[in-house]
Amino acid sequence: MNPVIALVGRPNVGKSTLFNRLTKSRDAIVADFAGLTRDRHYGHGRQGAREFIVIDTGGFEPEASSGIFSEMAKQTRQAVAEADAVVFVVDARAGVSSQDHDIAKYLRRLGKPCVLTANKAEGMVGAAQLSEFYELGLGEVHAVSAAHGQGIRDLIDLALASLPEPEETELPADEKAAIRLTVAGRPNVGKSTLINTWLGEERLVAFDMPGTTRDAITVPFERNGQRFDLIDTAGLRKKGKVFEAIEKFSVVKTLQAIDSANVVLLLLDATQGVTDQDAHIAGYILERGRAVVLAVNKWDAVDDYQRQLLERSIETRLAFLKFASLHFISAKKRQGLGPLWSALTQAYKAATCKMSTPVLTRLLLEAVQFQSPKRAGMFRPKLRYAHQGGMNPPVIVIHGNSLEHVTDAYKRFLEARFRKEFDLVGTPLRIEMKTSHNPYADNEKA
Fold first, then answer.
1. GO terms for molecular function, please (predicted)?
2. CA neighbours within 13 Å on the CB side: how many for 49?
3. In terms of CATH, what superfamily is 357-445?
4. pLDDT tens, 322-348?
5. Percent of the chain, pLDDT > 70?
6. Are strands 382-390 and 263-269 parallel, antiparallel or unpaired?
7. Range with the lowest mean pLDDT among 152-161, 166-175, 197-206?
8. Domain 179-351: what homologous superfamily?
């Protein structure tokens, strides 16, 4: 097992910047804004041949007893409990605060290996200003600059020095790759609550306030021998309602999470119905070619009449996602989650389905024999053979003559036959037409 290092400190001391530096990534949102990180955020780092796991945490207020700061404190305590070593980050330029003392007292009581790190210390190595941090009672103060990369290697060595070398374990050669599952939707539809229910713990901050999640948080998970990377995302609002720069960063992270996903779970709110923003998010998922499953959360909170209206609304406003399966769930009460998992796995299999050229060509010729494409002037499109051109989403390439005249209606006819044969539920299917070049066309022009 790789050692785990938790980054702990009060808000806006540079923990996320340090996280990105240690993991050599941009996974954590960074901005000059206190309280940006709220959930535990995991990443992998490497120093030479030594690998480790880093946990980024929100601003820690040990004495917080209510509200969002209390939930953030729970996340930090859980991260410290999971960690083998703690890096306590303080602000070298702001000096010691009463909150630093509270955190130091908490860490001393736990007795875990702790490295006191003064961030934002560019040009301050050995400076007298750092001496005040010794009053925290955590030993030597190590000056770093996460933004400039100064002192990072020494920091990692110190954090790992007190930990045993991990035992080498070989992974099975046939181990399945993890499915990247992104949970997307509007703010406050229950995305974090759903993931917490799946995990059986309060892994993510779930609070009755829109916009609680700001970053795209990845959580490893395994079910029935299949590994998943569950990605919780920030809720996507309408453009006109995104005012804060932080929220704009969150939108970018959410769109990136959709782009990198194998399957997207689009979560709707039964109490709010299908909104324009739901349709916009669905349209973006379709545009990016991601496999998708629709789930209506808070189904237990509406009556029969509202359920009928909602079902009709989904049929009309999300008609372009007819290929996606629809599920009605309650994340809080754990209702409907079994069939939802089956649908997510089925959508992934459909998105990565392999279709042989002989079978595709046979289906194509049978479809043409059943119904020929419409004639365009003197020419009737001639469809000769088909083959697979890609996966996730599946792409079928059809070759022939005069294929530019094939109508959209006929493409939908072909798509329906391909979907039925290969059971392509939950994934978009793209059909590309490639017209053969006439070798005598140039001679005729001459």
1. GTP binding; ribosome binding
2. 3
3. K homology (KH) domain (3.30.300.20)
4. 999 999 999 888 898 889 999 999 999
5. 80
6. unpaired
7. 166-175
8. P-loop containing nucleotide triphosphate hydrolases (3.40.50.300)
Domains 4-161 and 179-351 share a fold: yes
Concatenating the DSSP letter of every residue in 203-230 gives -S---SSTT---S-EEEEEEETTEEEEE
Alpha carbons 20 and 83: distance in angstroms, whole number: 18
Determine the number of helices (DSSP H) and then strands (DSSP E) in the chain: 12, 15
In CATH, 4-161 is 3.40.50.300: yes
Per the prediction, the chain carries an average pLDDT of 80
Mean pLDDT of 87-91: 92
Question: Domain boundaries in the chain?
Answer: 4-161, 179-351, 357-445
For 232-243, what is each residue's pLDDT tens digit? 776 554 444 433
Chain mean position to CA 68 = 22
End-to-end CA distance of the chain: 72
Radius of gyration for the chain, computed over Cα atoms and rounded to the nearest angstrom: 27
| Residue 433 pLDDT greater than 60, yes or no | yes
Q: Show binding-site residues.
A: 9-16, 56-60, 119-122, 185-192, 232-236, 297-300
Specify the pLDDT at position 213.
43
Over residues 158-179, the mean pLDDT reads 65
Q: Which residues are annotated as a binding site for GTP?
A: 9-16, 56-60, 119-122, 185-192, 232-236, 297-300
With 80 as the cut, is the pLDDT of residue 264 above it?
yes
C-alpha 21: how far from chain center: 20
In order, the DSSP letters of 89-126 are: EEETTT---HHHHHHHHHHHHHT--EEEEEES-TT-TT
What pLDDT score was predicted for residue 354?
A: 93
Q: Which of 230, 234, 425, 441 is nearest to 325 (CA)?
A: 425
Quickly list DSSP for 308-347.
HHHHHHHHHHTGGGTTS-EEE-BTTTTBSHHHHHHHHHHH
Q: Are 192 and 213 in contact (CB under 8 A)?
A: yes
What are the tokens at 284?
A: 């973006």
